[in-house]
Amino acid sequence: MSDASRTLTWTVRALGWLIALGVMAVFVHKYGTSRITSATLQCAEQSRTERNALAFGQQILDCIYAKSGPVERWMLNDTKQLVSALPYAPCRYVGTWRATRPGAVYTVTLQDDSTFIAEPIEPRNADTITGSWGFHKDRLIWFYDNGRVWPPDINPVRHQNDDIFMVTEPDRSTTTYMLLKRFNSTACARV
What we know:
Layout: H1 3-45, H2 53-66, H3 70-84, E1 95-101, E2 104-110, E3 115-122, E4 129-136, E5 139-144, E6 153-161, E7 164-168, E8 174-182
């Protein structure tokens, strides 16, 4: 067999293995996602024992994790680390902010006890949103009292300065937060 045909044979084999591994990865991901979805539905049906959105989110994650196998736990690992690190309310975020994104403007008050309230400015007839928030590894995590319960809303953060930061929403849009009033707090996390 010539060198060229050996090279071609090994290239075809390597390509075949890569395609097979890719197909297996897709099936494993679909299997894990299906199992997580099933566990999430079961856990969400349980009665809500916690009134705090963060505590409820942590309760759901613990339930999902308990019902999961190795594949699902591997898939949940990052979310588990984020949620387990909460509550964590850094002082730089504690205060009232004007949050602007395409089609909406809110006044968002982030409390040092990891609760928040977002009141609509535009459109005025939008709902006020309440829940819990936290920060971990350059990401803001939101849990809502009403509506979306799981998964948490996790947004990467980019800072411009101490008075302005931006978050990337799940739909890839950007929300810009401009400080209106900083709160003096002894309970917030000093970083």
